[in-house]
Amino acid sequence: MQTFTDTQGRAWTVAITVDTIRRVRALTGTDLMQVLGGGLIERLSSDPVLLADLLYAVVKPEAEARQITDADFGRALAGDAVAAATTALLEGLVAFFPSPRARLLRQALAKLEAWQTAALATAEQRLTTLAAPGTSSGVSPASSGSIPAG
Q1: Does the pLDDT value for residue 56 go beyond 80?
Q2: Distance in angstroms (rounded) separating the CA atoms of residues 8 and 87
Q3: d(Cα 96, Cα 39) in Å, to the nearest integer?
Q4: For residue 71, what pLDDT is reported?
């Protein structure tokens, strides 16, 4: 079982079982088994609303026991809590599958993480280049000579 903490300091347990997969399908229309194809992983990493909906379905029995609605749950997912929740869900899915499939899923997750790290490094480098003192950002105020007289 994996855990994550939301922005309200509440710890949540992510335990993926056949019952969990059935509940997520029924509540969200999303099949967690699609994670093996890789498409669901990409969707989860780029769509925080989908992530929150899936996570709420996963932890629904725990949320109901705490009287936490899906809206309350979603309000408590932001920043680092989103990253922790994503990791908990994906690691929970890895733990659900038998060894051969789990190994494939771990490889897919590692490749996604490497790709995201590279993409962030590239974006950071571009921002650093744009923000360096003495460099032109391509945006400058118009000179008074180029403004037509009214």
Answers
A1: yes
A2: 18
A3: 18
A4: 96
Structure tokens at 86: 């994503």
Query: Considering the entire predicted model, what is its pTM?
Result: 0.70
Please say whether the beta carbons of 51 and 81 come within 8 A. Answer: no
The Cα 27–Cα 29 span in angstroms is: 6
Q: Measuring CA to CA, which residue among 85, 36, 35 is closest to residue 56?
A: 85
Distance CA 130, CA 134 (A): 10
The 8-class DSSP code of residue 107 comes to H
DSSP 15-62: ---HHHHHHHHHHHS--GGGGGGSHHHHHHHH-HHHHHHHHHHHHHHH
Angle at 145 between CA 142 and CA 150, to 5 degrees: 95
Residues contacting residue 100 through CB under 8 Å, at least 6 positions apart: none
Rounded Cα distance between 128 and 121, Å, is 10
pLDDT digits (tens, 9 = 90+) for 80-123: 999 889 889 888 888 887 777 667 667 666 665 665 566 667 77
